[in-house]
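DUF1440 domain-containing protein
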Amino acid sequence: MILRGGLSGLAGGLALGFFLKWIQIVTGLKVYTLLLNVDFVYSNPLPEWVEFVIHLIVAIFIGMGFGFAIEKLRVIGFLKTYGVALLITLPALFLYFPLSMLARKEVPSVFDLEAFGWWGGGHLVFAGVMAGVKRAMKNTS
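Tokens:
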């Protein structure tokens, strides 16, 4: 249960990262930079791949919590599974604001509604992929 949740979190984290990277390339909004933003913790800049691995580790832990919740709540059906994924992902949506304020790198302003919209859209993708992968793994066992 927790392993499958972790794998669903990894898949969701990859989807979120690639989605926001693409949005940043297409729009110029630094939402991917914001996603990987840990520069307020470390004095020396980290390579992008290290920041991405940190992001994936967080996504795996979120996925593990998701897998645990799905099993303990005995959630059945994709829509209910997606609902649980959304509830677990919701706090990450609001990390946009403190991450924007704490960033040393150039990232979108806390008042940039377009960037916040893409950030929110990316986290909907994260929840959807997490729920979809969890469902697919359940159907194959």
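Residues 2-139 form one domain.
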